[in-house]
Amino acid sequence: MSASRRMLHPGAWWIWAIALAATALRTTDALLLGLIAVVVAYVVSARRTDAPWARSFGSFLRLGVIVIVIRVVFQMLFGVRIEGTTLFTIPSVTLPSWAAGVSLGGPVTAEALVDAARQGLRLAVVLLCFGAASSLCSPYRMLRALPSALYEAGVAITVALTFAPQAIIASRQVRDARRLRGRADRGVRAWAGSAMPVLEGALDRSVALAASMDARGYGRRGAIPVARRRGISALMLLGLCLVAVGAYGLLDATAPAVLRLPPFIAGAVALTASLMLSGRGVERTRYRPDPWRSPEWIVSLSGVAALVAIVIAGRTGAVLEPPASPLAVPQLVPVAAAGILVALLPAWLAPRPPAPLEPTLDPRFEVAA
Amino acid sequence: MSGVLAWFLLGFLALVSMALASMGALVVGASAASAASGPCAAPVIGQARVVVVVDDGEGGADHAVATCVVVPRGSKGSLVLAARAARLGTAAPSHAGSGLLCTIDSFPASQCADTGSGSYWANFSGTDGVWNYSSYNPFIRRVCDGDVEGWRYVVQGTGAAGDPQPRLDPASVRPADAWGCDEPSAAPASGGGAGAPGSIDAAAASGSSADASPTADGSPSGSIDPAIGVAGGQGRTGSSGASANDGVDGVDGVDATVLATHAAGGSSGGTALLGAGIVVAIIVVLGAAALVRSRRRA
Fold first, then answer.
1. Is B6 exposed, middle or buried (0-12, 13-18, 19+ CB in 10 A)?
2. Which among A147, A203, A144, A192 is positioned nearest to A170, based on CA atoms?
3. Strand pairing partners for A242?
């Protein structure tokens, strides 16, 4: 059993989590969102390590609850006045006619509250998916696995990828420090007092990590001639512009067909080419690279299965975004629900993470040895 | 962490049960409105007649159907579509959380899923005799007597004034004796015409304003019972002869029970509930398992 214990390739967990987040973004159905949330929570509880960042899932859960509460409160104050069963009325302000459509206060209906909670839940579940990814795999290993072309943007990527786990570590240290000084470590005042040091500390740590990696040659430019490097930059800029035009065309139904898919595809090709060309000049060796074996395939594909299932369900006419009014009992979309349950498989099929490195402290292990 | 997970689960359960509980209380809203027969009946003080033209954009021009709806004066526009659904006995219109209108009479079946491609219910105002594309929220607007409201389902439209209009002439369905927004005061004019006692000369009453409402015929048509008109603000449609009963017109035979059956029909009974129940059970079991695992670890 211990032989099969190993860290999964971080890319597999990230693909799994991003696919589940994309699945959550396609629906406001409370049943499907709740299913995604518990699937993610169960997999994390089954396969997380004891590393400091592995505790970040609980923080993301709290963040999700806060998101839902904020969404519901904002709906009460500024939201669209959805007609229906009025629960209570808050004082409203009559706005002039040019501000028609904006409401401030007014009757709060059950329909509006349920819909706001559903939309908050969707965002909360997306956050949970990213919390799961960052608590299931080491951010440092993820950095190592990035394509070499992205090394150009080394510092930015290091900060972006390690900020959340560093914030978790920093918040624990700040809390410990407050405790040692005899201050409260719970409640609103403790929060207000520790928010700034935590943010500052996390950013400092990320930047320090990026700097030390930079000093060791991470993000180093290869030996590319200046002219060629400029050409690659131009190609990347062109690709970005084309992708932007194409994305705008795809979103705007009135755009002519020429401005829709063709620039998008051309831009994507240009971007890929520029990334590949710039990556070619970077020489790099990996120390003990993470392998990509069948468990990695199973984990990543199980996440993608959920996404594919919900896309198929949407195409075949299932209602994934139930109307806010009239209220109805949530309808089960069987195809999408089955797909999401497939994403539960990593809880058993992914390899267990290595045991913590403190066996000598545990008397049972001493006996066994 | 485990405590938060428990709260998360609890909140989710509350959400589901809230949706279940408010199912029963759905059938409000529209019951306050009464309705008149096809071509609008005579105007009544305290009420506004609104002609709703709904065109689903399919088939021929006969898909554009005009319905006259009578709602209390000063009602919000949102009441109009609900009252129309109640009058015709169709499913109540459904809205997305943004307030966007998804379906009228359960059309389209895809609900709000196609709005991303520019398909939507376009709203028009036909009060001036031509269809004007509306860029105001029709649901918070206060209705006036004789308003003509048009809805046309546009497939992949532009979301601007050029989108297709309802295939029906708004001038032909607007009541000729419309009072517009300046309806006469509740006190009946003493020096009325040769009509019945208590009748109001609609043309004389609204003649002071430069309203474009075509009241040139000048015939006293709004015969009302001043007692009802003043006391209840409820009134009744003068020509139908049916008694005003709880605000729902007896002629139509459409009342809250019809709405209730439509609301229930939407959730198609037992199998859907069973599926939802299974998923809720899975969610609870998995969540509890995750809770136990994380607690055992900590």
1. middle
2. A203
3. none
User: From the candidates A40, A42, A63, A94, which should be mutated to test the interface with B, based on the most B CB atoms within 10 A?
Assistant: A42
Q: What's the gap in Å between the CA of A339 and the closest CA on chain B? A: 13
Q: A-chain residues within 8 Å CB-CB of B267? A: 328-329, 331
State chain A's maximal CA–CA distance in angstroms: 81
Substitution target in A33, A83, A352 with the highest count of B β-carbons within 10 Å is A83
Residue B281 zone, left/alpha/beta (φ > 0; ψ -120 to 50; rest): alpha
State how far the Cα of A106 lies from the Cα of A95, in Å rounded to an integer: 12
B78/A337 touch (CB, cutoff 8 Å), yes or no: no
Contact at 8 Å (CB) between B75 and B142? yes
Asked if B158's CB is within 8 angstroms of A100's CB, the reply is no
Nearest to A329 among B19, B112, B141 (CB): B19
pLDDT tens-place string over residues B144-172: 888 899 999 988 888 788 888 898 888 88
- pLDDT given at position A253: 59
Distance of CA B242 to the CA centre of its chain: 22
Whole-angstrom CA distances from B268 to A257, A310, B20, B129 are 41, 22, 14, 42
Across all residues in chain A, what is the average pLDDT? 83
A113 in contact with B at a CB cutoff of 8 Å? Answer: yes
Nearest alpha-carbon partner for B89 in B288, B265, B292: B265
Chain A residues inside the 8 Å CB shell of B295: none
The whole-angstrom separation of Cα B87 and Cα A100 is: 28
ipTM: 0.74
Cα–Cα distance measured from residue B286 to residue A337, given in angstroms and rounded to the nearest whole number: 14
**Across B4-16, average pLDDT:** 62
Phi first, then psi: what are they for B249, rounded to 5°? -70, 130
The verdict on a CB contact (< 8 Å) between A62 and B137 is no
Give, to the nearest 10 degrees, the angle between helix B2-24 and helix B269-297. 160
Q: Enumerate the domain spans of chain A.
A: 2-140+288-356, 222-281
Q: How many CB pairs under 8 A join A and B?
A: 185
| Inter-chain touch A85–B25, beta carbons under 8 Å | yes
